[in-house]
Amino acid sequence: MQGSDYYIPALALAVALVVKLPSLWHSRRSPMSQAIFVIIAASAGGFAFAAPPSVERVNRLTGVSNVSALIVYCFLSCLSCASMVLLLHWRGGPEASVRRQTRMWIAATAGVISTFCVLFALSDVPAERPRDLDTFYATTPFIGEMIVLYLSAHAATATVVMTKCWRWSAELRAAKAGWTRWGLLTLVTAFGLGLAFALLKFAAVGARWAGTDALDVLSTEVAPPLAGLGALMTTVGFLIPVVGPRLESMWDAWRAYRLMEPLWSALEPWVGDGAPMRIARTSSLEMRATLRATEIADRLLNLAPHLDARHRAVAERYATGRGLELEAALIVAEAATIRAALACPPVAGAPARTPVAATPGRTPVAGTAARTAPVADAAARSAPVAGTAARTAPVAGTAEPGRLAADESATGAGAGPLPIRISGTSGLAELSRHFSRIHPTDLMADAAHSESN
Q1: What string of H, E and C letters represents the secondary structure of 104-140?
Q2: Is 159 exposed, middle or buried (0-12, 13-18, 19+ CB in 10 A)?
Q3: How far apart are CA 105 and CA 113, in angstroms?
């Protein structure tokens, strides 16, 4: 990294801190929030003060040569300590044990930083070295010891954190904690880069002790980019479990919202007379998906008197016979039943939002129940095969297909409005997906075939 290159990660981390600051402020009493604040702020500060232009400016303002190096060492020590504290609280355990270990790490870091200050004050470092202080003063009394202490503490912390993160990620391999595991693996890589940084610096300093500057390039050219990347990845690793689930929730809501579009549009004639629900333009994706699911549920209530239980039973038996498991067959049957009902116009003179009185002949769709089979076939082609029902959306009111068919046959067509057995945003999104795979031409062709017979 050369000159002002240090400011790029510093600026990125500063932006991340500004974005995260409101939520950190609301939970400012939480040790985890405090640790996250220190991690991001210390990383940004370390890069800002390590930049050669900053080194020269700080030295001039303070009148103390190379004091910027001391500031950078303190920042990075705070970063290491906060990372360990956050990991302790993240992992959890007995409260007394976590508190004791947290205090131990804070006390150790405070001791290290105090030692840095004492050694720097005792040292004589008149020559300003903005890029190669570690190697230039490697053999100078007091400052040389400060450099070794800093690199040793950095390497030790990186090793401990990396080991703990790796072990914890292995424990989570079989658990449903994907975001946490990815965050831990990112931290393993980040602190692995931090360990490599310390080892490369040690190699260059050791070469100076041996009387050669042949390895100075490791300290001045190779190690700094590793430290920069490691600091950025440290911040990302701790933010993944926090930001990841939120992004996943937004993605799921957006996907459900889009999937519900075909069914929502097809049910437009069944809106009714009530005033449409409105939400602010700034409403979240989850709110928009919930509103669309609510509107679909209301429209299906208005359509319920025109749904045929016999069609549903035939479609479900047909879908089950095609190898679909119970939940998948239920979704296919509901989609086929809705599509069949929508193939005919609403009953003349019936208010769209008032259920039509149930009569034995209330369902004038497709003529006979047997005509629902091609519709179910169209939906079944888009449904998961046997063994994958667990991946379908949650379904309400699941019943055994054979029993369901018998019950609905017994109640007959005049048993009242037929409720839809699927609910919830994800359930209605899956229902809409299968509904969109059924084309009205399937119904028309089947009706024509039935009339010809």
Answers
A1: HHHHHHHHHHHHHHHHHHHCCCCCCCCCCHHHHCCCC
A2: middle
A3: 12
Residue 439 is predicted with a pLDDT of: 63
The pLDDT, as a whole number, for residue 254 is 92
Question: Is the separation of the CB atoms in 238 and 86 below 8 Å?
Answer: yes
Cβ(54)–Cβ(253) under 8 Å? no
Is the distance from CB of 266 to CB of 303 less than 8 angstroms?
no
Q: What is the Cα–Cα distance from 235 to 136, expressed in whole angstroms? A: 31
> CA nearest 158: which of 183, 124, 189?
189
Kindly report the number of other CB atoms within 10 A of residue 415's CB atom: 13
Q: What share of the chain is helix, strand, coil (3-state, %, to 5)?
A: 75, 0, 25
Cα distance between residue 337 and residue 332, in whole Å? 9
The amino acid at residue 6 is Y
Helical (H) or strand (E) element with 407: helix 401-411
Asked whether the beta carbons of 168 and 86 are under 8 A apart, the reply is no
Mean pLDDT on 24-28: 84
Q: Is the CB of residue 186 less than 8 Å from the CB of residue 236?
A: yes
pLDDT by residue (tens digit) across 181-227? 898 999 999 999 999 999 999 999 999 999 999 999 999 889 888 88
The verdict on pTM exceeding 0.70 is no
Residue 434 makes CB contacts below 8 A (sequence gap 6+) with 331, 332, 335, 379, 382, 383
pLDDT given at position 398: 38
Q: What is the pLDDT of residues 384-393, one digit of tens each?
A: 433 333 333 3
Q: 72 near 58, Cβ under 8 Å?
A: no
Residue with tokens 């629900």: 277
**Distance separating alpha carbons of residues 422 and 71, to the nearest angstrom:** 61
Distances (CA, A) of 382 to 174, 390, 391, 430: 30, 16, 13, 11
pLDDT at 140 over 70: yes
Give the whole-angstrom CA distance, residue 259 versus residue 238.
33
Q: pLDDT by residue (tens digit) across 60-98? A: 898 888 898 899 999 989 988 998 898 888 888 888 999
